[in-house]
Amino acid sequence: MALKELKKDYAGRDFLSLLDYTADDLQYFLDVADYLKAEHKAGQPISYLQGKTMGLIFEKSSTRTRVSFEAGIYYLGGQGLFLSGHDLQIGRGEPIKDTARVLSRFLNGLMIRTFSHETVLELANYADIPVINGLTDLLHPCQVLADLQTIREHKGRLAGLKMAFIGDGNNMAHSLMNGGARMGMHVVIACPEGYQPDAQVLAAAEEAARESGGSVQVLADPMAAAAGADVIYTDVWASMGQESEKAEREKVFGGVYQVNEQLMAAANPGAMVLHCLPAHRGEEITEDVFETHPEIFDEAENRLYAQMAVMALLLA
Ligand code: CP
Ligand code: NVA
Q1: DSSP for 22-36, written as a single string
Q2: Residues annotated as catalytic (active site), given as ranges
Q3: Is 240's C-beta closer than 6 angstroms to any atom of ligand 1?
Q4: Is 13 inside any structural domain?
Q5: How far is the CA of 7 from the centre of ligand 2 (A)?
């Protein structure tokens, strides 16, 4: 098949939060992701990143993000450079703003996974090249773009669907609220007192929901959140960087904020189960539910195509 002409409208932009993009933009990103998936599976060579380089900065661990970015750049004809935060001079105190200006002279794009969201904002502010957020303590937009692709693939639509997130009001909850609200979904977050989503993120998602006809709600009761849901989503109780809170969080979340058969019985028949992974079986999800919902691996697979779309469009 001839090379599909992609829109140039996104060239040079950053991908830091899903709310930086309109619903039409995100639908287009998903269309491109679906197209790239079909082309790649058909064995078609794709060369949108021919001769281009992406730096991939990791200050936290990763399996999916690292491998899907590295493989995705290669499949697009470009070259990815894995840059560990331990090995870069940022690990020895070189300011992020200097790193941004130097790497902009060498590369065509940057992805960063780090702790503080401010670090990504500063990197993007000082870099002359597109910056992609590969997870911060606040947001995980690449994951949710792949999640939206997976939901659309399985359910044929996004608007009007109910998605319940069970667990910590963390980076995943935030990006699901952003992405779901933007696309007209009804997003319900069930989390314990003291672990609710960030108030500013919630307010922005509520605003997006008002525009799209979706909704965002935060509850304490997981069964109420799951009632009639089309998509059940969960994530670990303690995220990267919260290792010292693990025992305390097990006490707070344990036995209640878990995706199990009983919770699934409250959801709509045929409800999808999604998990960004890695999963902790017996904690936020039972072995039975996990192993009977293979769409979790479709979701992981779509990281590759969603991110290929983002890179092809931003580095155009
Ligand atoms: N879901 C996700 O981002 O996985 P990794 O931490 O393995 O990259
Ligand atoms: N909330 C998790 C997501 C991992 C992909 C974390 O930040 O560790």
Answers
A1: -HHHHHHHHHHHHHH
A2: 113, 140, 143, 235, 276, 303
A3: no
A4: no
A5: 32
Q: Enter the pTM of the model.
A: 0.98
C-alpha closest to that of 21 among 169, 194, 145: 145
Q: Decide: residue 7, CB within 10 A, 0-12 exposed, 13-18 middle, 19+ buried.
A: exposed
Do 127 and 181 belong together in one domain? no
Query: Any idea what the CATH number is for the domain that residue 292 is in?
Result: 3.40.50.1370
- Are 184 and 213 in contact by the 8 Å Cβ rule? The answer is yes
* pLDDT tens-digit series, residues 67-94: 999 999 999 999 999 999 999 999 999 9
Closest C-alpha residue for ligand 1 atom 4: 64
- Residues touching ligand 2 (Cβ under 6 Å) are 170-172, 235-236, 239-240, 276
Residue 12 lies in a domain: no
Sign of the dihedral defined by the CA atoms of residues 296, 275, 135, 217, in that order: positive
pLDDT digits (tens, 9 = 90+) for 231-264: 999 999 999 999 999 999 999 999 999 999 999 9
State the DSSP code for 220: S
Domain range for residue 44? 18-139+303-315
The enclosing H or E element of 273 equals strand 272-275
DSSP reduced 3-state for 117: helix
DSSP 233: E
Task: Verify that 120 and 196 share a domain, yes or no.
Answer: no
Rounded-to-integer distance, Cα 93 and Cα 15, Å: 25
Q: What is the pLDDT of residues 289-301, one digit of tens each?
A: 999 999 999 999 9
